[in-house]
Every structure is written in structure tokens, then in C-alpha cells.
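Lab channel / #folding
Pinned by the channel admin:
"Please post every new chain as: sequence first, then the C-alpha cells as a reply. Keep commentary short and put observations after the output so the thread stays searchable."

First post following the new format, from NK:
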Amino acid sequence: MKITKEEVLYVANLARLNVDDGDVEKLAAEIGDILSYVDTLEKVDTDGVEPTTHAIDLTNAFREDVVHPHPGASATLANAPDKEDEMFVVPKVVG
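Reply from TO:
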């Protein structure tokens, strides 16, 4: 499919993209190649093929969400470099 320079500039304007004048012709050719490939894919017979969201079957790889007891403040702060009244002491980060 042939894409004109004007169409490239129009789409770039809609997408709020700054396109150099020297790149417009190259982009037109590349977009035309992509659309030609899509036209080729439209010729494939897909009758009887179920739509899918992935090319391969995927399963959830997450672990089970298991509740564990909290170790408590003293155990949590045991390795803290600096603590005060069961709280972490950290450097001041705001001016």
C-alpha cells in the first residue's frame, strides 16, 4: 500500500510527533511496507480458527498467597543500623 508524505505528516501531527522533513519519505516507505505485510496476512484462510490472546498456552506462575505472622517490631529492627522508639532512623531527604 502506498502512503503519501502528506499522510505521514497528518498522522504525525495527530500523534503530536515532530518529524524531520528528511525522514518523511523514509517513514512513508516503511509504513507502506508494514501495511503491505498486513494485506498479505489478510489473505490467509482463518476459517475455523479460534481467536486467541497468546500464541502459546500460558499458566499463572505466581505462588499461592499465604498469610504469615508478622515477626514483630523488635525482630524487624534487629539489624537496623539506627533505630529509635521502635522506628527506623533515616537521613533527612527534604531540604
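NK: The chain has a mean pLDDT of 89.
TO: also worth noting, The radius of gyration is 29 Å.
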